[in-house]
Amino acid sequence: MRIIDYLTDNPAYFIPVITILGAMVGSFLNVVIHRMPIMMERQWRQQCAELENPDTAEQPQEIFNLAKPDSHCPHCGHDIRAWENIPILSYLFLRGRCSGCGARISLRYPIIEAVTALLSAFAAWRFGVSWETAGALLLTWSLIPLTMIDIDHHLLPDSITLPFLWLGLGLNLFGIYTDLNSAVIGAIAGYLSLWIVYWSFKLLTGKEGMGYGDFKLLAMLGAWMGWQQLPTVILLSSVVGAVIGIGMIALRGRDHSIPIPFGPYLAIAGLIAFYWGGDLTNAYLRFSGIN
């Protein structure tokens, strides 16, 4: 509490502190992005093995989670020491290479750390020392791994979307971002709207246009922002998807037959709507002459 009181009395220090915290969280999110799909795959394989042979449930399994094993180079097994794991700075000091074998370290790691730091700083600047900032940070930190995991594996883990759906409802129990009725209706409407689109598309074409994880992600966003922002999120996700999709095809010649995950577009649109949804809606109403 003393730290919070100090930051409240000295707001000039608040944004730098949150920026550093965001970079540290970004380093952890890199672990989540890499390990969570592997954890999910191992869990699925274990469950299948247990169905075929129940005796396998008693066999000890190798520990693999977000904490263990310790971070190491995938090429040579070199254990990452503390000074090699400082967000952004270690990458620059190591010149993007492993100190053990010299293998190149993906530029993605410092980029995610930097993006997390910048988005965290923006949340701190927007809301100041408040519960709104705490919630905004948690929402941001959840959307980053969801975006990257969906890009890599076309998965939106329930272990992220569902807890944060409930967290959004819990925060709005106290009216942090919207009233509870709007949050509950937002969660229901968010899920059902894409569920209806999914089944309509499948009945008409025989193909799956999106996954169930997209339903849960929109439900999560509805729980945080209320049903009023759902049209804005859906519209923005379409715009973001069109811009990014056209850009990828133009720059990289992406094959039109390769599916593009919808989750990242929802996540980006969700953040935009979270901060500027009301302003965008009011601007549209003024432009259209309705308001």
Walk me through this protein's architecture.
With 291 residues, the protein is mainly alpha-helical. The radius of gyration is 21 Å and the shape is globular. The longest helix is centred in the N-terminal third of the chain and has 42 residues, at 11-52. The protein has helices at 2-9, 11-52, 89-93, 108-127, 131-153, 158-172, 180-205, 212-225, 230-252, 263-288. The protein contains 10 helices and no strands.
List the helices and strands and how they pair.
Elements: H1 2-9, H2 11-52, H3 89-93, H4 108-127, H5 131-153, H6 158-172, H7 180-205, H8 212-225, H9 230-252, H10 263-288
Helix pairs in contact: 1-2, 2-4, 2-5, 4-5, 5-6, 5-10, 6-7, 6-8, 7-8, 8-10, 9-10
Count of beta strands: 0
Beta-strand percentage? under 5%
Question: What value does the average pLDDT take?
Answer: 87
Low-pLDDT stretches are none
Helix and strand content put the structural class at: mainly alpha
Shape: globular
- Output the helix-strand order: HHHHHHHHHH
Rg estimate, integer Å: 21 Å
Helical coverage, percent range: 55-70%
Biggest β-sheet description: none
The total count of helices amounts to: 10
Alpha-carbon distance between the termini? 44 Å
Question: Summarize this, please?
Answer:
The chain is mostly helical.
Please describe the structure with a list of short key phrases separated by commas or semicolons.
291 residues; mainly alpha; 10 helices; 69% helix; globular
